[in-house]
Amino acid sequence: MTEISSHGQRIKITITAFLLTFITGILVVLPFVVQGSAQETLHINPIEIGKIFSYFMVGMVIMQFLNGYIIKYVKPKTELLIISVIYLFCIIGMFKVDTASQAPVLAIIIIILGLCGGVIVTIPNYIIVHAFQGKQRTTRLNLLDFCFSAGSSGYPYIVSWLFVMNLNWRDIYATVIIVWIVIVFMLLITKLPELRKSASNEHIKYSKWNASVILVGIAIFFFFISYTGFTYILQGCLQNIFTGPYGADKAASYSINAITMFWLFYAIGCVVSSVLIHKISVNVYIIISAVVACCSFIWVFHSVNVGAVYLAVSILGLGCSTTYSSSIAYGSQLVESASPRMISYFIVLSGIGTFSGEYLANIWFNERGYHFVTLASVYAMAMVAILYIIVTIMNRGKKIIID
Fold first, then answer.
1. Residue 274 half-sphere exposure, CB side, CA atoms within 13 Å?
2. How many whole angstroms separate alpha carbon 195 and alpha carbon 366?
3. d(Cα 230, Cα 227) in Å, to the nearest integer?
4. Which of 91, 117, 177, 335 has the most CB atoms within 10 Å of its CB?
5. CA 324 distance to own-chain centroid
6. Distance between CA atoms of 266 and 272, rounded to whole angstroms?
7. DSSP character at residue 72
8. Which tens digit of pLDDT belongs to each residue from 103-135?
9. What is the reported pTM?
10. Which long-range contacts (CB under 8 A, 24 or more apart) does 389-393 make?
């Protein structure tokens, strides 16, 4: 564990981690919100442009895995400064792409941006885990999730405003440089934790993984399959359900509002959980959250009116909000010294779970309908609770949370 003695440095580390996670949320959502503009500008068919921007997640998952090894040889600050320069060159490259024939070049740029995203999503977790312990760690990791939600849900509103001002998809990516400038400034004034050597300049000896760590990672996988699969088909399902009694226009508005309510309460839940984990054990809180989410999945499609749907979706957001970051915090405290590769293991499984959830939900929805997707989401979330009960029993008597 790297010692960061200065209170001021701890604050700077926290702010830097929050900014990195905020920009990750922005970069993850941008491929979805700029596709239409890119399609019009480059005259590429919707299927092809969708495929190109999907490469972002491919690159991101690859680097989430690789960075657990790279960080052994490159300091976090150095890696982030390199990534900021690479991002700048990618944006310059985007402005050179102006025809459909240059689509392969754009695909390469998107993959590289995905690799950049893989770095900036892992490092905040690395540095929080190694700079803080116990509930301070859990609190900050939950607030990281809030920052991600703020970036991914808030920036689309800025994008819509920028489109009104006649900016195109390249300009949207260029605006993110403003956030990068703030991050680079924070990096220059912040001492990040050393992940290779301790304060006494000795190489850090990381703990070996145990069965509990593996099970926590699997729980994260099932969690992402559950809620990403469900939310992937939620808007379309609600729009179809609402169209009958309310008409197409109101149905579209109500379904979008429902998705907004989910993410709003997801963000609120991240803040709430960062407080509640000081009152209740993290593993118990995750089990309760999983049970709440299971009930909410079923409640959504058994609600009798729009208000009931909004309430069910809001509670679902609260139920889903704490599991990911709290699992990283809990899993990293199951061993004495958690390695960057262990943190990457958790993050990679979240990426694979996200991709699998969306892919499977699309297939299941088209072949068997939303009831099947809902049941699959319930079963997957139930697995989260079951796995955590097993881990809790396996670690009974151990002091996992450090006050």
1. 18
2. 46
3. 5
4. 117
5. 8
6. 10
7. T
8. 899 999 999 999 999 999 999 988 888 888 777
9. 0.81
10. 389/287, 390/215, 391/212, 391/215, 391/216, 391/219, 391/283, 391/334, 392/283, 392/284, 392/287
